[in-house]
Structure formats: structure tokens, C-alpha cells
Amino acid sequence: MSGERGEGGGTEFQRILETLRTRIADGTYAIDSHLPAQRELAEELGVSRDTVQRVLRELNNEGWIKSRQGSGSRVVKSPTHLGNPKQEVPRVRATLGTFVARAFAQPTVRLDVFTLTSESLDAHIRLQAEHIRLKEITPERIELRILLPSESLDLPYPRMKKSSEDQSAQPEPDQSGRLQDRLRAITGRHTISLRAALRDLQTEGLVPSVRVEIRHVPLAPAFKLYLRPGVEALFGPYQVVERPILLDDGVEVEATDVLGLGSTLTRHVNDEGDPDSSGSVFMESMQAWFDSCWLLLADAP
Q1: Which part of the chain is CATH 1.10.10.10?
Q2: Which tens digit of pLDDT belongs to each residue from 40-67?
Q3: Which residues belong to any copy of the HTH gntR-type domain (predicted)?
């Protein structure tokens, strides 16, 4: 594992990984374009080429880029879009960026979220925080409730992939445990980040009222859910995949995992004029499900 350290005590590997993810998501590196050469990235970002190589390998494993020796790294997918509400086009397939932007365009921002790690949400929250600092939007109140899986829950993913020679064999418990620890570390890092981003807005006097609540439930998420209560929802199932995962010490392991960043999200809108419409029924049922989990299953605040 690289000894380089970044701001806030995070590893340089994680800092560069999140930087390149954001650049791909916001179009700085567009789909079908090539990333700068490894040496250029290392010089620009102030890290070693070894760190850049590890980051590119992780992006390749996650499906963001395709790397080929002698041809560099080409962007093939942008799993999460840091959108602008002005670019919104009515469609069934939706993006989290435009959803969060619509929420933050209101005087009162209300969001209820059920997710595995909050990684995607963190990126969009921090983006909206910058819009607030630039006086582009001026919400008066922010209310965010997040449901996450219990930290003690033995999740079905990520797990070490079973050997193809013996499907009945159990994965090494130590490696699977490290994968679960890695997932919990990712969750902790992003919940701390988004909580701080929002509370700083209140501390700086930019938003008069901010309330962020995070609770844990004994459920393994099969889907992610984003709700603007009474208005709209985004719903996306987690697709189970087999992929390499790079551990903190540089060891790469084959694992069964889910790619939350690549989840296909569908948008459902509450129709106040028709409570029996599919959108209204979906909103009512999912809000009731979220509230029941929040009140009856989640740990006490």
C-alpha cells in the first residue's frame, strides 16, 4: 500500500480515484475520450505513477474505462452524472445528479435515502454545496434522512469469489472479512463527508437550518432508493457482478460484488391530480416502506 497521504488523512489512492471518477461523471473526460497519459496525471495530481496505475486499474475493474497497453485508457461509461437541472429531459431512465439538483432548487430540501454506501450521494451533495457557496441556489432548510445497512450485518456482498474448480468450497474468511471492512470504510468516509459538507453550510451562515440523520437497519440493500417526499422518487436495483477488487495493500482479489455507481435508475413522479396513477402509487408505497423501516427497524438516533 502506498504511504502517500492526502487531505483529511485519506490515502492518495482514494483521493485520485474520486477525482477521476468526478471528472468522468461531469464530462471533463467524456465517453469515448482518452484519459491523459499516466505521467501527465501523476505530475498534475502530485502523486507517483504507481498510485495512478492502481487507480486506473480500479476504474477499469469498475467499468468506467478500458485500458489497453500501448493505447492508454479510454472512457467507456459514466455511471453517475453530475447533472444540471436545465438539461433535464423527460424520460423514464433518470440520473441522480438532476434529481438532487431539483431538490436543492427548492426553498426546503427534503431527501430520504436508502442505499448501500452513500458514495454516489456524497458527490452530488458536495456539488450542490458549491452551488450554494456561489449563490447560484439559496435553500433555507435542508432535511436529509439516510438509511444504511447495520454495520454488524454480515452482507452477501462483497465476498471472495468461489473457486471455479470447487463451487462448494468456502472463500477464505479473512479475505471476505477484509472486503466487508473495505465496504464499511467507504461508507464511513462518504457519510462523514456529506454530513460535514451540509453542516458547514449552516456554520457558515449560508443555510439557516440543516438536519442530517443517519440510521442503520438490519437489511442488505437489493436496491437504492432516493425520495423527495410527496414529489418524486428514483429507484434502482443493485446488479450483482463478479469483478476484481483492489484492497488497500495493493492485493487484487476476485469477488462477487455490486456496482452501485452503475445502477440503472427509474424516476417515479407523484401525480397530485391522480392518486391512482402508477407514479403516485409507487411514491406512496415506497415512502410508507421507508418510514416504517426508519421508525421500526432502524437503530435509535
Answers
A1: 7-75
A2: 898 888 888 888 988 898 888 877 888 8
A3: 10-78
